[in-house]
Structures are given as structure tokens and as C-alpha cells.
Write a structure and sequence with these properties.
- With 287 residues, the protein is an alpha/beta fold.
- It has helices at residues 64-75, 93-98, 114-123, 125-128, 144-147, 176-185, 203-216, 252-260, 267-275, 279-285, and strands at residues 9-16, 19-32, 37-43, 47-52, 55-59, 83-88, 106-111, 137-141, 156-162, 186-195, 219-226, 234-241.
- Helix 2 links the parallel strand 6 and strand 7.
- It binds spermidine.
- Spermidine (SPD) binds next to strand 5 and helix 2.
Amino acid sequence: MNNKPAPAISWVDEEHQGVRYGLQGRVLIEEKSKYQKITVIDSVRYGKGLLLDGCWMVAEHQEKQYHECLVHPALSSAEKLSKILIIGGGDGGTARECLRYSEVHHIDMIEIDKRVVELSQQHLPSIGGKAWDDPRLHLTIQDGTSWIKNTTTNSYDVVIVDGADPLGPAEGLFNSDFFSNCQRILKPGGIFATQSESPEAFRAIHIDTVLLIRKIFDYADPLYGWVPMYPSGWWSWTFASNEQPRYKHPIPERIVEVSKKCEFWSPRWQKGAFDAIPAFVERRINK
Ligand code: SPD
């Protein structure tokens, strides 16, 4: 019998520029991997949650508004869906949403930190769900920025970047070399998607990210939503494609089944979320 007392309830906060974004809960794991500090908590309100280097990544009952918004604008509208690439995404939530499309035959997921995957599988199994056992999912533990350099041109229908904030190991996921490689490996008719930080808490990073992506692709637009535990709660994802802004036009037949089970995403929500670009961002990116 394990007589170890349960860890005490405390506040776990992400601190950013003089503001705290916190959840009350018990700290279950705090360890240093080769790349970063990893914390797993059991929170009072949102179930188990994961932080990397003190920044919120995911929590069981507050992840759909992040993963649905990152995945479905891209997968609902890419010309084909056979082969998908996920860079990052070690908790499994992005892969889970992609695997809901029967047209998806193969997903490569390139995650830098093996411990993020292991701890997510152990403590947050509901986020990856059945994705971890799905034969279509192929996981490689490697730095996505070096992996992508050696990847064949025109090989993926959708490229999704589900990285952390650009302050630690994910820094290389926000520069023009990396975005150019993402564009190079996309097939014609393909779509690129990335989380693009908060227009409030990370205003400069957000605007620079959208501007960089716009230089590389013919079309790119940010979409806005809410992830309440992230700094400011106001979040963004950016989608890009060549020849036409394909990501604005979900393919109706493809989404019949998928959209029935979404909690947040729908074609109508998506239209409003692209239109919800704040005036200060619109002015800067359309200059
Ligand atoms: N500050 C949060 C940045 C978002 C990072 N991605 C979250 C991972 C969820 N799969």
C-alpha cells in the first residue's frame, strides 16, 4: 500500500510581463528533461495540465478550443488529405483531431522531447486518446527544424506546427528558414497551419509571425479564439496556402461527420474567427 500523502493544493502560475495566469491544483511531476522543465498538475477546475518551462501547454478540460482551431481550418479545406505532418504536438491532441478524417492515411509527428510524449501518455491519456495506437500515426523523436531540412519537396498535404512559445526549444519554429521549408514540402493544394501566439500578450511576436508567413506563401491569415489559461486568454492560429486562400473554404462533404463532434469549430465559427482580426493587426499586416 502506498502511504505517500497526496501533494498539497497550491497555485501554479505562468508569469508573463507582470501578470499571472494560474490554476489551482496539485503538482504531480516536476522534472528537467534534456530540453526543458516539465510540470504536470492535477488542477481543481480543468483536470490534468502540462507546463513547459513554466508556460501552459494544455489541460484536459481546456484543450479542444486549441486543437480544434489549429487542425480543422486546415484539414477541412486542403485539396487532399493523404499525408499530414505535425511538428511538435507531443501531447497527442493535434494528432487525435487529424485522425478523425478517414482520408488521412499517414501522419508523421516530429516531437523534440521524448519526455513530453511519455508524460502525456502516462498522465494525460485523454488528450491523445486512441491516436497513440492508431497505425496511421508515425512518431519520430527529433528536432523538427533539422528534420524538415532533409525532407523531400512536395510531400505533405497539410503541415501543422504545434509548438511551444518561441522562448526555449521552440524558438526555431518561428523564423523564415523554417517557414520556407514548410512551404517547400507542401504539395500543391496543401495548407500550412501554426499556432501564432496571443495578439495581446505576445503582440510583436504575433504580428511578426503573420508577416513572415505572408512573405513566404501567396496567402496567409490569422484566426482568433480563446484558450483561457494561456496569457491573456486571447489566442491565434495562422493558416497559409498558395494560389488561393483555400483555408477559408471548408469542403462541405468532408466535414459532415467531423463537425458533428466538434465542441468549438464549425465553418460558421471559423468565418467569424477569421473576421475577428483586431484593427491594429489588420493595419500592420496589410501595410
Ligand atoms: N503558450 C502556449 C503555446 C501553445 C503551445 N502549444 C500547445 C500544445 C498543445 N498541443
